[in-house]
Amino acid sequence: MNRNNPCLLNRAFRILLCFRIIFTILPQSEIFPNSGPGWRMKGDTVTILDVAKRAGVAPGTVSRVIHNTGYIKDATRTKIEKALNELNYVPNRAGRTLKTTRTGLIMLAIPDTSNAIYVGMIEAVQEYVDNFGYSMVLFYTGGKVKGELKAVRMLREHLVDGLFLIHFSYSAELRAAIDGCNSPVVLCGMCNNLWANAKGRRFSTISIDVFHGIYTATAGMIRAGHRKIAYLAGEKGTNVYLQRFQAYRKALRDHGIPYDGRLVFWHNYMKNHGREAASAVLAMKKRPTAMVASNDLQALGFWEECRDHGLAIPGNMALSGMDNLDEMNMLHLTSIIMMEDRIGASGAEILMRQLREKNAPPVDLSFRPELVPRASTNGAYFS
Fold first, then answer.
1. Cβ atoms of 80 and 62 closer than 8 Å
2. Residue ranges of domains in the chain
């Protein structure tokens, strides 16, 4: 894709939206024609009756949860899902024959469809696996552990041959589900992966040194003369944003600048958060002179709100983001390249190698983002 062509970018997002609708609305039996009611647990050791007994509900209620049909109370659904995981119940909806026959599909599971950073990753994965006669299935997790667990379950049900999971969660439940997979799994947490180099695991990891990226951006602001630097922190409680926040704090500390929590804005990682933060900044009597954003969507929202209220960037304030989306280039906003194309190709390469070589060991890769100074931080003065 020509990443400087907005028309092609919009087309890619329409495709992404279609995938989101498919996997959010349609039953799995319509997505995968071979799926149906004739599934059974691998080894036939656990049945719906076992799950129903553990959860204290009727077998039909368990069936409705598994098929995601009919109304189920949230408390009942949670109880049944807990029993399914405790009993390690894995229905093989793709049929018993697929236990020994490959599907020719690998899954790329992404957190959301609103961030264009995943477009390059999607294209790279599809292009690479196509060379080996494979196709890519795109799955939308919502960036939540429930969606990530569903992606892993689909792998364990033999609906796909391998999984490339972009995950935000590091829960024990997710780790246990992944450890139970007999098929190749590659994990990328869009940060320094906490499970890299873990002993006794079979999955591979791809890390992105986001700490280095945000530290470099914040230190660059300081070198440019800024002392009151605000921060768009993203979603609190997720490691992908915690690592970035820690980098911001360390850069301040290393340069002798006191931390001020009033200049840090937690909410989410979308444009609306950037706009809300800009409104708060505009209301300050003593405004910061620079803003570092933990991703580009927040930076773009911040820029839009500042523009709408006549605050010039970089005239009145410097701004940097992270992801290097096309809009950042068009608006001359400083950002950080995340290497998403190389990450996608590397994840696909690992999956293909492990599918071809039965005893291929797990791999841990790491990528270091690169700062791209532009006019929003006074260009050369920032580097």
1. yes
2. 40-91, 211-338+371-382
Distance CA 289, CA 225 (A): 9
Buried b (16+ CB within 10 A) or exposed e, 253-270: eeeebeeeeebebbbbbb
- Residues 162, 173: Cα–Cα separation, whole Å: 19
Q: Is 207 exposed, middle or buried (0-12, 13-18, 19+ CB in 10 A)?
A: buried
Residue 34: CA count within 13 A, CB half-sphere: 13
**Domain 40-91 homologous superfamily, CATH:** lambda repressor-like DNA-binding domains (1.10.260.40)
The CATH number of the structural domain formed by 211-338+371-382 is 3.40.50.2300
Residue 157: phi and psi, rounded to 5, are: -85, 5
**Angle between helix 172-179 and 74-86 (nearest 10):** 40
**SS3 sequence of the chain:** CCCCCHHHHHHHHHHHHHHHHHHHHCCHHHHCCCCCCCCCEHHHCCCHHHHHHHHCCCHHHHHHHHHCCCCCCHHHHHHHHHHHHHCCCCECCCCHHHHCCCCCEEEEEECCCCCCHHHHHHHHHHHHHHCCCCEEEEEECCCCHHHHHHHHHHHHCCCCCEEEEECCCCCHHHHHHHHCCCCCEEEECCCCCCCCCCCCCCCEEEEECHHHHHHHHHHHHHHCCCCCEEEEEECCCCHHHHHHHHHHHHHHHHCCCCCCHHHEEECCCCHHHHHHHHHHHHCCCCCCCEEEECCHHHHHHHHHHHHHCCCCCCCCCEEECCECCHHHHHCCCEEEECCHHHHHHHHHHHHHHHHHCCCCCCCEEEECCEEECCHHHCHHHHC
Q: Average pLDDT per run of 10 along the chain, which is 383 residues long?
A: 47 48 40 40 64 88 78 88 83 48 91 89 95 93 94 93 95 93 94 89 95 96 96 92 96 97 93 95 96 97 96 94 96 96 96 92 95 86 57
Whole-angstrom distance, CA of residue 154 vs CA of residue 164: 12
State how far the Cα of 130 lies from the Cα of 108, in Å rounded to an integer.
14
Say if strands 290-293 and 318-320 run parallel, antiparallel, or are unpaired. Answer: parallel
